[in-house]
Amino acid sequence: MDRSPALSAPDRDRQWLANGMAIVWAIALADLVFHIYFNNRYGYFRDEFDYMSCGEHLQWGYVDQPPLIPFLIHVCRAVLGDSLRAIRFVPAVASSLLLVQTAAIARELGGRRYALVLSAICALVSPQYLSNGSLLGTNCLEPNLWMGCAYFVILAIKRSDPRYWLWFGVTAGLGMENKYSIAVFGLGIVVGPLLTAQRRVFLNPWIWLGGVVAFLVFLPNLLWNIHYDWPFLQLMHNIRAEGRDLVLGPFQFFFQQVLVSNPLNAPLWLAGLFALLFSARLRPYCALGWAYLVSYAAFFVLHGKNYYLAPIYPMLFAAGAVVLESGLDRRDAGQPRLQWLKPVIAVVLLANGAYLAPIVIPILSPEHFLAYAKTLPFKLPVNEYSHARAALPQWYSDQFGYKEIADEALVAWDRIPAAERSDCGIFGQDYGQAGAIDFFDRKLGLPPAFSGDRTYWIWGPRGYSGNCLIVAGDRRERLEQLFGEVDYVGTSADNPWALESNIGFYICRKPKFGKLAELWPQIKRWR
């Protein structure tokens, strides 16, 4: 256990300034301001409508996600409102705090000022973390929670205090309430000690108590999944059965890990991985190196998307920065000092990060982005076949077209006679359409939209009989099989940058299926 003497307040302040954490916090603050400034340049992202809709129906789970992000956006909207900057405030803060977490891990691994600052810079310029800070989603908190787990593992080992496994359990449990993929990292954390001298940790009751705590934190969502017959597993099975996701080969998967973490960061995190696995200095923490290998193998075998492994890299940045700092500070006889490389490396990384930032931060207009993309020495990754048709990459194209959909829903609603409105619902084909109509049009007096997609299906047909429906995004011939009267309203205005555009709207009456509740099981769309 760490028995270092307690420091007085002035001494702690001087140490905080000397060890680089003041610089790290300054970088984190600059990152926060950067995200807040640019986070309203385009529009609301499709998935953000889903999170906001779920946040209006607080429960212990949803078809495509656990409850943490919907709960946080519920609170955030209540406090800050509905602007883009308000919706994306939590991601901006989480992205900035990740820099501090990365530096804190470097400090616990034995790093000094340069290692702390360099590791924070590596996290700052990683495209995936920049993207996480610009969009609301489960990805935005995932690196923070993974690195929280890694941090408590390091403390448990370094300070010989197994009680930190309880905090690991709390963090892992919260991680499961955010995104289930943290279970893969947890598996790696368990397998790692089994393959190293740290296996004796399993003889201590605290690690088992940590597991119990993680289970208890996750239990409400687990019970929700059981109650609804495992919706998330059904969703994943259907997505794989449709073959929507691109399957990456071994080289492609590794190359995209390099891209999402920034190509210039790759030598550092690879050095950190090897140091965790093989160096004497970091040998006590080699379980973290094995955790990376286990997670990498699991996501590759399961055909995970390229960003699924992204939350793990900050601990490798930290380990690599510690190794690099030690190498640059060596004073072997006859060897020139390499201190001059320290600022050079930092400046090159920052310059490279600035060059790559427009890939994931809407700094440029769409027209200027397309011109910029042509200058890149690589093609931007595509995760689903359907994304390849858009002019912009999916994370940008899915921020366009939804206001136009909501505007056309309002046009259709204005054609409904007042006598029919109490029993006339608005149906969207997917959560993006339904969520956009809910978000933009509810303030104008339109009823809540409904859909068969994801958790909207669980919320049901909202009591509508089906005698009068406004339907978005379906084909006329299919609607005529279900309704005796189908009137075309119009198509949402074209947006050249949108992945989803030109959505047709119909007013449907005289149902052929009886009551809408009877048809509802066939409307389920979990894919």
UniProtKB/TrEMBL annotation:
GO terms for biological process: lipopolysaccharide biosynthetic process. InterPro entries: LipidA_mod_glycosyltrf_83, RgtA/B/C-like. Keywords: Cell membrane, Glycosyltransferase, Membrane, Transferase, Transmembrane, Transmembrane helix. Pfam families: PMT_2 (PF13231). Residues 64-224 form the Glycosyltransferase RgtA/B/C/D-like domain. It is a multi-pass membrane protein. The chain crosses the membrane at residues 16-38, 206-226, 254-278, 285-302, 308-328, 340-364. The keyword Signal does not apply. It is found in: Cell membrane. Its main location: membrane. It comes from the Bacteria. GO terms for cellular component: plasma membrane. GO terms for molecular function: pentosyltransferase activity. This is Glycosyl transferase, family 39. The lineage of its organism: Bacteria, Pseudomonadati, Acidobacteriota, Terriglobia, Terriglobales.
